[in-house]
Amino acid sequence: MVTSLLPSTQRVLLRRLAVEQSENRVPSLIAGLLRDGETIWVDSRGQVNGAPASTDTQYRVGSITKTFVGVLVMRLRDEGRLDLTDKLDEHLPGTALGNRSIGEILSQCSGLTAEPAGQWWERTPGGSADELLATIDDSAIRPTPRHQFHYSNVGFGILGELVARLRGAPWHEVMEREILQPLGMRRTTLSPVAPHAEGLAVHPWADVVLPEPAEDAGAMAPAGQLWSTFDDMARWARFVLGDTGEVLHPDTVAEMRVPGSVDDGPEWRSGYGLGLQLIRHNGRRLAGHSGSMPGFLASVWTDPAENEAVIFMANTTAGVTGALGTDLLDALAEHEPRIPEPWIPRPDVDMGLLELTGEWYWGPSPHVLRVLSNGLLDLRLGHGRKGRASRFRPNGDGTWTGLDGYYAGEILRIGRDADGKPNHLNLNTFILTRTPYAANAPVPGGVAGWRPAGS
Q1: Does pLDDT of 162 surpass 70?
Q2: What mean pLDDT is reported for the chain?
Q3: Residue among 391, 389, 371, 372 nearest 380 (CA)
Q4: In sequence order, what are the beta bridge partners of 411?
Q5: Angle at which helices 323-335 and 7-23 pack, to 10 degrees?
Q6: Could you read off the pLDDT of 96-132 as tens digits, one per residue?
Q7: With contact defined as beta carbons under 8 Å apart, do 213 and 200 qualify?
Q8: Inter-residue contact 31 to 312 (CB < 8 Å)
Q9: How confident is the model at residue 1 (pLDDT cuts 50, 70, 90)?
Q10: Predicted confidence band of residue 67 (pLDDT cuts 50, 70, 90)
């Protein structure tokens, strides 16, 4: 097994994996961690066909399939073949969902029913796309607000057919050509290819198992049919982290990780981007997807901020706790935290930017502007306070564009006095000055001057 961790860390991780498999009676379970694009630990418990699972053993990955469909849709968007604001009727006419946008379907807020009409689709042979689309009538639309999160397997069946119509080939053939082959994911398939685990259900009150069916889901296959291995899922985790090859621009994948809807509660901890599930955990913002099909459970979660990922795959219908993945990430952070690289002064800093650094005031509120090592500007509240913060990249004409936070996409202009010295910042009409409400800067409404209260 691949590892580059301390023996003590390996033991902590192995114990967490072993407890999960033993106490929850999971026939086989494989899990691992990635850091900086490398698999740093992977291990398994239980057996598949009389032997431990390997990183080449296939498991059904369920709804992780949706992330591949999301990428196929975003490729069409980036090529100009569709827009996320397009109504479904513009591409697949004739359903009661026709007035909903592709973006709403992709981010799980279209209001479409969670499951298709008819029998339990995960355990029965699926029908054609035309048959699926014919069932999308008024009864398939749920009375939820258009912006509210409502998970829908059916929506991704529809998106799979959307891809097929626009590409002129079945969605899984498009996926093979446009994603799997370029990324070298040779063991991700629509049907199982040996070596693979058998899907099992474990009796709740006895140590016996029941084989689960693995039918072809037909038009619903884009919602959860794929089989894959740990090694292939590790490659997919690197993709979600931004190592996208020629499949998608990393900026598009970053866009997919932005929340489009949230599963609301006292404070939201989970939501959905564009084909990616999102969760918050202990200050982490994780993107990926869980997967569940009869006989199988799987998850791939990535942390772009830390460039880390966790994967697990099991052949059981129920039993693996949702905390396994985050517990493994927590153990990594506790027992083998990152050691920061030594700070070294940069030889290529634009010295002309130094006059912009330091304190600026939005009204009476202090902000601090500093130059980052990559040449970006960083503006945030001063004195350690939390609030609006953004980084800015230069546009080459003296202006700067916000990259993130409240000012993402907004323009920062540098105002100067008659001597050319910066005396104010114009941030999308807000004026920041070197002193609170400086009288020598163009503050809208004018500045009458500071004075004692009551005078």
Answers
A1: yes
A2: 95
A3: 389
A4: 401
A5: 160
A6: 999 999 999 999 999 999 999 999 999 999 999 999 9
A7: no
A8: yes
A9: low
A10: very high
User: What's the length of the chain?
Assistant: 455
CB 82 within 8 A of CB 76: yes
* Torsion sign (Cα): 95, 100, 102, 108: negative
348 forms beta bridges with none
Place of tokens 């059916």: 154
In this structure, the number of other CB atoms found within 10 A of the CB of residue 91 comes to 17
- Select from 268, 260, 64 the least CA-distant residue to 153: 64
The pLDDT score that the predictor gives to residue 2 is 64
Q: pLDDT tens, 379-416?
A: 999 988 888 899 999 999 999 999 998 999 999 999 99
Residue 400 phi/psi, 5-degree rounding, is -130, 150
Report residue 35: phi and psi, to 5°. Answer: -145, 130
Q: Which residues pair with 209 in a beta bridge?
A: 202
Distance CA 114, CA 122 (A): 13
Single-letter amino acid code for the residue at 364: P
Phi, psi of 11 (to 5 degrees): -65, -40
The three-state (H, E, C) secondary structure of the chain, written as one string: CCECCCHHHHHHHHHHHHHHHHHCCCCEEEEEEEECCEEEEEEEEECECCECCCCCCEEECHHHHHHHHHHHHHHHHHCCCCCCCCEHHHCCCCCCCCCCEHHHHHCCCCCECCCCCCCCHHHCCCCCHHHHHHCCCHHHECCCCCCCCCCCHHHHHHHHHHHHHHHCCCHHHHHHHHHHHHHCCCCCECCCCCCECCCEEECCCCCCEEECCCCCCHHHHHHCCCEECHHHHHHHHHHHCCCCCCCCCHHHHHHHCCCCEEECCCCCCEEECCCCEEEEECCEEEEEEEEEECCEEEEEEEECCCCEEEEEEECCCCCCCCHHHHHHHHHHHHHCCCCCCCCCCCCCCCHHHHHHCEEEEECCEEEEEEECCCCCEEEEECCCCCCCEEEEEECCCCCEEECCHHHCCCEEEEEECCCCCEEEEEECCEEEECCCCCCCCCCCCCCCCCCCCCC
Give the integer Cα–Cα distance in Å for 415 and 399: 10
Look at residues 64, 450, 61 and name the one whose alpha carbon lies nearest to residue 239: 64
Pair of tokens at residue 231: 């090694």
pLDDT confidence tier of residue 322, bands split at 50, 70 and 90: confident
Q: CA 333, CA 311: separation in Å to the nearest integer?
A: 16
Q: How many CB atoms are located within 10 Å of the residue 420 CB?
A: 8
Rounded distance, CA 110 to CA 97, Å? Answer: 8
pLDDT of 390 reads 95
pLDDT at 82 over 60: yes
